[in-house]
Fold this sequence. Notes:
The protein is an all-alpha fold. It has helices at residues 17-33, 44-59, 61-73, 75-85, 88-104. It is built from five helices and no strands.
Amino acid sequence: MQRVSPAPPVRRPAIRPVFRIAQLVLGGVLILAAPLLAPVPGPAGIFLLAGGLVLILRNSPAARLRFARAKRKWPRTGRMIDRAMRRESALRRLARERQKVRRDTPR
């Protein structure tokens, strides 16, 4: 009998440096434009800020490190931002908390 090796883990393809830099610049522009739209009625500034933050966090290891440090310093705010951005880590944490509550509740 022949052994079948497991499939290698799926990895995201590397983003070209030019595309990555363009996304970083666009994220910065969105973040800088957010306060300009604050006086306009509606939540447009919040969406621009969130979009810019997502672009920067996905493309900059240094920004991710600073974000992680800020989350440790202000955990409640970090949790809210993670949930609003639908980050995978926040979704995993939420699923673990729900599972723990289900196990701990008496039936």
